[in-house]
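Technical note accompanying the year-one report. For the benefit of new consortium partners, we illustrate the data format agreed upon in the data management plan: each record pairs a sequence with a structure-token string. No post-processing was applied to the example shown here.
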Amino acid sequence: MGIVCTLLQLYSLAVLAWVILSWVQVPSDHPVAKVQLLLDRIIYPVILPLRRVMPSPRVGGAMLDLSPIVLILGIAVLRGIIC
């Protein structure tokens, strides 16, 4: 069970890093862009179904994407059950 718990914790950190890096624009030849691409590939398959199910609330003139928060909370609940 230790490996699964560690992987879930790493995935939560990856989601957090993905959110933070989504606020930063970097050129495609920058090393951080490679990290963003890697995180996109591991986060998008999980987050896209959540985005389809959850409506994004409108805050002023912008839409607020709550799916990363729901994903991190879901992982925390799963870790609480498993670990």
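Partners are asked to follow this layout when depositing records. Residues 2-82 form one domain.
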